[in-house]
Design a protein that fits this description.
This protein is mainly alpha-helical. It is built from 16 helices and no strands.
């Protein structure tokens, strides 16, 4: 297993500057994303007046992740900086025709679906490259801290700043949230243009083109994920996490009103509470991972998530439910920080794009299954049932994480050895 240590050619000052630019770029684009996520359903409903088409527009954004193995392979063949800057500029340009049409009035649903899907494709490019570039900029012992900073920036933008800002801008003039989104992507691209360059595919077959070579590289990435015991188990658990989380969040709006007896704004308060938990998790994840170790941190995060769901199922009292949602979010962010860092340590540098995209395909692909299962269970067996299902599924995953600690120790020994040799 390979570790992608930070290149010795970068000075500490250059590395710090590059990481600051990466975090700031994520923060800026996340504010625009939060504004667009909050207002895109409003735009779809305003343009079509049909709930079905609103759901189709939302699904178009998720569908892009089905292309993740192909996109991850392309990211591995390109310089990381070029992938991120290109994705940002593409998303900024894509929004221009949407804004131009919106100035005139309602936007055709076909345009909404197309722009949403194309923007999501660019997002997969950016996210895969952004996670792959971190090991080239941060020393191994700083991976958790760096990933936590990036996640905190994203949570702040998409969870706190962007949505209310988007709602206010929508009320002032409908095109404004999308103009803001395009401007943040352009600003992010400008920040990232000065990142140290890092070429992608440097292994055997580098520079080869054609569909056959592309398919071969896609298969190589998927095979690596399937053969690596730790990554394979993490993919299985993250798929279950996606099922469980979406099973409860899909029915949360109904649960808040009918089971907890909250007013209509109660659902929003629950989401805000969860976002606060996510931000707290991002602030503490690096210290927790350093204290417990990645393997133990992963088991703790899954166990805490499972127990939070089961507590809600047994004690449906709204202050306790809010506290459990916040605690669950802390645990999920801890999981994310540790698994991102483990992937960056375990995957060869020229496969990080494919490993990242393949892993996230497992996470995102499981979410529609969880949402459908949660709705069906709530309808047939009651609103408490999805919480029970989510908790029991996660408890059943704990045995899969037993081998992560030993694998992590071996990787760390290899990392320290390579660092000594490099130093």
């Amino acid at each position: 297993m390979s570790s992608a240590a930070a290149p010795s050619s970068l000075s500490d000052r250059s590395r710090t500057t590059a990481l600051r630019r990466l975090v700031t770029a994520n923060a800026l684009s996340s504010v625009g994303d939060g504004a667009r996520f909050a207002t895109l359903p409003m735009l779809a409903m305003w343009s079509t007046g049909d709930v079905f088409w609103v759901s189709v527009v939302a699904a178009a954004g998720r569908a892009a992740w089905l292309l993740a193995p192909v996109i991850g392979t392309l990211v591995d063949r390109m310089p990381r900086r070029r992938s991120m800057v290109g994705a940002d500029l593409a998303r900024s340009v894509m929004l221009l025709p949407l804004v131009a049409l919106l100035v005139r009035g309602p936007v055709p649903v076909a345009v909404l679906v197309l722009v949403t899907f194309a923007s999501a494709v660019a997002e997969v490019f950016f996210d895969s490259a952004a996670q792959a570039v971190v090991p080239a900029l941060a020393p191994d012992h700083e991976l958790e801290r760096t990933n936590a900073r990036v996640i905190a920036a994203q949570i702040t933008g998409t969870g706190f700043v962007g949505p209310p800002l988007g709602a206010v801008l929508w009320a002032v003039w409908h095109p404004l949230p999308f103009l803001l989104d395009g401007a943040t992507f352009a600003a992010s691209a400008l920040l990232l243009m000065n990142l140290p360059e890092r070429t992608g595919h440097t292994g055997p077959g580098a520079g080869e083109r054609g569909v056959r070579h592309l398919l071969r590289d896609i298969w190589a990435g998927l095979r690596f994920l399937g053969r690596d015991r730790v990554l394979r188990r993490l993919m299985m658990v993250v798929a279950v996490l996606g099922v469980g989380q979406q099973a409860v969040y899909a029915i949360l709006v109904v649960y808040a009103e009918q089971r907890l007896g909250l007013p209509s704004y109660g659902y929003s308060l629950m989401l805000v509470t969860a976002a606060v938990g996510s931000l707290a998790g991002a602030r503490t994840a690096a210290r927790t991972a350093r204290w417990l170790g990645s393997g133990r941190s992963l088991r703790v995060s899954v166990a805490v998530s499972a127990l939070s769901y089961l507590v809600v199922a047994v004690l449906p009292w709204w202050p306790l439910v809010a506290a459990m949602l916040a605690l669950n979010s802390v645990a999920v962010v801890l999981w994310n920080v540790c698994t991102v860092s483990l992937r960056q340590r375990l995957a060869p540098p020229d496969m990080l794009g494919r490993v990242t995209s393949g892993y996230r395909l497992a996470a995102w692909g499981a979410m529609p299954i969880g949402a459908s299962a949660g709705g069906a269970l709530a309808q047939q067996a009651g609103l408490d049932t999805p919480w029970v299902l989510a908790g029991l599924l996660l408890l059943a995953c704990l045995p899969l994480l037993r081998g992560v600690a030993s694998a992590e120790s071996g990787a760390e020994e290899a990392d320290s050895g390579s660092s000594r040799n490099a130093g």
